[in-house]
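Page 37, continued from 36.
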């Protein structure tokens, strides 16, 4: 009888119980462990008592909760942006941004952009390699008669861990006007000392930078975020999508506003976990610097680890018929003891296989 890991009926944490067995869990996107952080949960409950369970009125209503403006100001300050906009989901934040700003010029998509960024189905890209794509994009824009462009990209590839460098924009002719839309859902709260991508994007006169992100991953609340200059945020807040949509729960935003130290403490713990595991992984595991995911091409590694009651992220990509992507994903909720047990299991598997397959 196969174990059913698709009907888990408890909150995710460092462990899950399935069919009476306790498994260590190394998957998901709760990089800072916020869903199980007691101090954050206390803040969330305080927010519920203060503001109630939800708010179904749109942001265009003549009577408003002030928490939404306060949360946007806090997000802009925390992530070093001029202004911010918060929606009920990362998908909504991305869609309203792309649909509003894509009219500025010719749209060029980077490889593997998240579906939340798509305008009309999966876009064509020059290459599956970000490095090749950026060189092609420089040549395309510099040799074109068109002046205005909208570049749309993730900030990183979290599946095949790689953080993207956007300094290539400096090589584009200064008379070309660029709007750069970057999805930082997996980076915000984690990369760049927790600041995410916005403050690291090139500051060029001919480039308008806009970051969209889900706040449901590292930041642990069901909301979407846009970071940009004030004029861009004002434009986005005037869209039908923003005006007509209900906002996220005020309780979650209350917790976000008051959780700066909680996030920082969790980030430090996450970096300690990354360092500890990295020191004990073989060269067959690969990751991006300071990012909590490690990829391997070892076949059947997920099944082997499952036999030791260890669960990692493993699913076929890019189609259901593709080989699985096998990754360890760390969180701040993992203890040093959890990591040591995992490392011991890898050693046992290596001993049984009498090999350690290289990527």
């Amino acid at each position: 009888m196969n174990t059913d890991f698709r009907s888990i009926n408890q909150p995710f944490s460092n462990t899950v119980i399935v069919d009476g067995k306790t498994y260590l869990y190394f998957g998901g996107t709760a990089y800072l462990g916020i869903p199980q952080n007691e101090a954050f949960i206390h803040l969330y409950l305080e927010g519920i008592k203060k503001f109630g369970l939800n708010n179904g009125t749109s942001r265009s209503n003549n009577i408003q909760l002030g928490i939404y403006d306060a949360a946007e100001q806090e997000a802009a300050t925390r992530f070093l942006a001029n202004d911010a906009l918060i929606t009920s989901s990362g998908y909504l934040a991305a869609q309203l941004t792309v649909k509003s700003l894509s009219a500025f010029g010719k749209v060029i998509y980077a490889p593997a952009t998240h579906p939340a960024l798509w305008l009309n189905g999966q876009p064509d890209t020059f290459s599956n390699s970000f490095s090749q794509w950026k060189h092609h994009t420089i040549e395309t824009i510099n040799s074109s008669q068109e002046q205005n462009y909208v570049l749309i990209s993730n900030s990183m590839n979290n599946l095949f861990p790689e953080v993207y460098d956007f300094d290539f924009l400096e090589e584009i002719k200064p008379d070309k006007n660029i709007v750069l839309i970057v999805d930082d859902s997996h980076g915000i709260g984690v990369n760049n000392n927790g600041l995410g991508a916005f403050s690291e994007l090139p500051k060029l006169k001919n480039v308008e930078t806009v970051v969209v992100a889900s706040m449901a991953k590292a930041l642990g609340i069901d909301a979407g975020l846009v970071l940009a200059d004030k004029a861009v945020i004002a434009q986005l807040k005037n869209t039908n999508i923003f005006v007509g949509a209900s906002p996220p729960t005020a309780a979650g935003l209350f917790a976000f506003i008051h959780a700066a130290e909680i996030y920082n403490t969790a980030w430090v713990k996450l970096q300690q976990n990354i360092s500890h595991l990295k020191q004990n992984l073989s060269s067959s595991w690969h990751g991006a610097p300071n990012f909590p995911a490690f990829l391997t091409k070892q076949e059947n590694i997920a099944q082997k680890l499952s036999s030791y009651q260890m669960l990692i992220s493993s699913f076929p990509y890019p189609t259901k018929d593709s080989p699985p992507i096998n990754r360890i994903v760390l969180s701040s909720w993992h203890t040093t003891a959890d990591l040591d047990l995992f490392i011991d299991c890898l050693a046992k598997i290596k001993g049984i296989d009498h090999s350690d397959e290289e990527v």
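Confidence is low (pLDDT under 50) at residues 355-359. Flag for discussion at group meeting. The chain is about 35% helix and 20% strand.
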